[in-house]
Amino acid sequence: MIQITDNISLDPNEIIETFIRASGPGGQNVNKVSSAVQLRFDVRHSPSLPGFVRARAAYLAGSRLTRHGVLVITASRFRSQAQNREDARARLIVLLREAANRPALRKATRTPMRAHESRLRSKARRGQLKKLRRVRRGEE
Q: How many other C-beta atoms are found inside a 10 Å radius of the C-beta of residue 80?
């Protein structure tokens, strides 16, 4: 089991890892060895995640989430397949931990009465100033 938080853990069978050829430097080795890892995890249908974590993880995944709700993480930072595999899993765990933290709800607050009255006074002052600038009939 992959531990996400104290009460959330993932079954490793839910994660599908495929190894692909990485781009970038590496000489002839890069054309022969599949060292990059593409990790796939079905966020929307995972039985290991509570509902609110599923929804928030889908939101946080952004463009890494497919139309079917599968999270795709590609790791090719290292030249070693094992290091890329650990990197992909670590990135999945970080995303799921962030999804498990519920954001603090914003408390709606009222505008202070003094600020409200001050705003109305300044509007009245401005209106009075503009009124004094008007050209009266007969004085044109």
A: 12
Domains in the chain, start-ordered, CATH in brackets? 2-100 (3.30.160.20)
pLDDT digits (tens, 9 = 90+) for 23-37: 766 666 666 777 788
CA distances from 2 to 18, 54, 115 (A): 18, 16, 53
Residue ranges in 2-139 assigned as alpha helix (H): 29-32, 51-61, 81-100, 113-133
d(CA 51, CA 65) in angstroms, rounded, equals 17
Residue 12's φ and ψ, nearest 5 degrees, are: -60, -20
pTM of this structure: 0.65
Residue 130: count other Cβ atoms within 10 Å of its Cβ.
9
